[in-house]
Amino acid sequence: MGILGTGIQDGLLLKPVTYPWAMDLYDQAVANTWFPNEIQLGEDLADFHRMSDDERHALTYLMSYFNPNELLVNKALAFGVYPYVNAAEAHLYLAKQMWEEANHCMAFEYVLETFPVDREAAYGAHVDVASMAAKEEFEVRYIRRMTEQGLDISTVAGKRDFVRNLVAYNVILEGIWFYSGFMVALSFRQRNLLRNFGSLIDWIVRDESLHLKFGINLILTVLEENPEVATDEFAAEIRQMILSAVDMEVAYNRDLLPRGILGLNAEVVNDYVRYLTDRRLEELGFEPEYHVANPAKWMATANDTLQLVNFFEATNTSYEVNAMASRRGD
């Protein structure tokens, strides 16, 4: 039995653990548990009032995007991932990830409640701003393929839709689009602004790095266990899917920073997006596309490159996060 399946009575025993990487990531996620109100965000209010209109626009714009999309990720997990995975250890991790997405939503609510921003405008932007709405529609399209249109996970077509959904959410949304926003959010701290807000983002990034590791491990495990899925044509489709997402992010960042702010403009952020995308492509075993240098080396700790394996020729796809993994199967 592989990691995919829909049997209600399958995956009810945790030990022996079949996928040590999933158990390790669950342990790390539990150890990372935090709550937004542990950070004294109100101490950043003086900074917020000193910021320029463009800086406040950027911060509000980020909240406009992050807040609904954390909940969108939960829909993708609940309807497009959890029902199609059998392993108990994977279910444990996914349950913790869903709690983390809810916690991130509450963290961004905390920002909206603390800083004097126009909540109605912030909430409306993900519908009213074309570049933001385009990104959301891209993601929603993959949930619909997993739910409203039905999915037979026992077929090659169903397995490919499952992989597409993981690429859309774990790699593109969480691994590229969110990290682009994190870079802008943390850039304020680089200028000694919004330091507590920066700490909040640090904690969110720590969670998201595990989400990314889980998603890539899951993709590679599905491909290893189901080699018939991984054709050259499917590889080309996945690569193009990721590159198309970059074009959407480039347009979004131009709306995020229409005039730029001190030390940062849309093109710098978009170079970071291209740099990140090359890292994600490599993590999936593809060749890089953009070959650009990292314009935000101070973000290096936030985008650790995972173990490199070949997306379509992997023979051992398990990413063991630490030495505990070797003991999990006992």
Tell me about this structure.
- The protein is mostly helical and 330 residues long.
- It has a single domain (20-327), classed as Orthogonal Bundle (Ribonucleotide Reductase, subunit A).
- The protein has 10 helices and no strands.
- The longest helix is centred in the middle third of the chain and has 35 residues, at 156-190.
- The model is unreliable at 302-330 (pLDDT under 50).
- InterPro entries: Ferritin-like_SF, RNR-like, RNR_small, RNR_small_fam.
- How many domain modules? 1
Q: State the low-pLDDT regions, or none.
A: 302-330
Q: Calculate the terminal CA-CA distance, rounded to whole Å.
A: 19 Å
Largest sheet: none
The CATH H-level superfamily is Ribonucleotide Reductase, subunit A
Counted beta strands:
0
User: How do the SSEs run, as a string of H and E?
Assistant: HHHHHHHHHH
Helix content: 55-70%
Q: Within the CATH hierarchy, at the fold level, what is the topology?
A: Ribonucleotide Reductase, subunit A
Summing up helix and strand content along with how strands pair, one would put the structural category as mainly alpha
Number of helix segments?
10
Average pLDDT level: 83
SSE layout and pairing:
Elements: H1 20-31, H2 45-50, H3 53-80, H4 88-114, H5 119-128, H6 130-146, H7 156-190, H8 195-225, H9 232-256, H10 266-283
Helix pairs in contact: 1-4, 1-8, 3-4, 3-5, 3-6, 3-7, 4-8, 5-6, 6-7, 6-9, 7-8, 7-9, 7-10, 9-10
